[in-house]
Design brief:
With about 240 residues, the chain is an alpha+beta fold. Helix content is about 55%, strand content about 10%. The protein is built from 8 helices and 6 strands. The strands form 2 sheets. Strands 1-6-2-5 form a 4-stranded antiparallel beta sheet. Strands 3-4 form a two-stranded antiparallel ribbon. Helix 1 runs antiparallel to helix 4. The protein is elongated and about 70 Å long.
């Protein structure tokens, strides 16, 4: 693969994912025109590359990459693990840069590496919340004020899921982690994807972070560190 073509593909993909992530974070929507535009750009770039640097192995890898990305993204969308933007992002990544060999890899399919790396990065969020809550407790903040009757295991669990916010405005995309029953506060921990966003003051919340942001971070981490799966399946 020509290095200039590779850099063009990587830059194109990064611009697309950055804009899409920003849009998803601010509005929870990504205009379909973005996916259409970058799909066209991706198809054009790969057509040019195959024309000038054609070989059968590359063509087969491109077909496999797009096919696998389509199958996995549609399956995850159908099962409810993906939103529409997540599904389209994975597919369009495969159209822009179907084959990429990072510094460490198990396979050359950039879209799938972006997904798995992004999945690993989501695991850092609970640790960030837990650290924040422990620091607040050490500093003497009574983050469980009003929850004295709540069970200890729920207090520990909620420390990994979110934090107590002073004020949450409408439109900020935070999910409530507490409820009031018969005048008593308790934690409300739900795995439902369609939980409504909340607003209020001095409440336990968790931010609704779009998966697309983690796919973008997964793509960037692929460029810098390679495939995280190599840590578990070295060769």
């Amino acid at each position: 693969m020509d290095i200039s073509m590779l850099l063009l593909k990587l830059t194109t993909c990064f611009i697309m994912l950055s804009y899409a992530s920003f849009s998803d974070w601010k509005t929870r929507e990504v205009d379909d025109k973005l996916w259409i535009l970058f799909s066209f750009i991706g198809i054009t770039l790969n057509a040019v590359e195959l024309y000038f640097y054609f070989n059968l192995q590359l063509l087969m890898l491109v077909i496999i990459s797009i096919s696998l990305s389509s199958l996995i993204s549609f399956t995850l969308y159908y099962l409810g693990f993906f939103g529409g933007a997540d599904m389209k992002a994975l597919l369009v990544i495969s159209l822009i840069i179907p084959v990429y060999y990072p510094s460490r890899y198990l396979h050359p399919f950039a879209s799938l590496t972006s997904l798995t790396n992004g999945a690993f990065l989501t695991l850092s969020i609970p640790m960030i919340f837990f650290t924040l809550n422990m620091v607040r407790l050490i500093l003497g903040k009574d983050i469980f004020l009003g929850f004295e009757n709540e069970k200890l295991w729920k207090k520990i669990l909620v420390c990994f899921l979110g934090y107590r916010a002073r004020k949450v405005e409408k439109g900020q995309f935070f999910i409530n982690l507490e409820k009031t029953t018969d005048g008593k506060k308790g934690f409300h921990i739900s795995l439902l994807k369609d939980e409504e966003f909340t607003s209020g003051q001095d409440i336990w919340v968790t931010p609704g972070i779009p998966l697309l942001i983690f796919i973008t971070l997964g793509f960037v981490s692929t460029l810098i560190f390679g495939d995280f799966l190599v840590l578990f399946f070295p060769y």
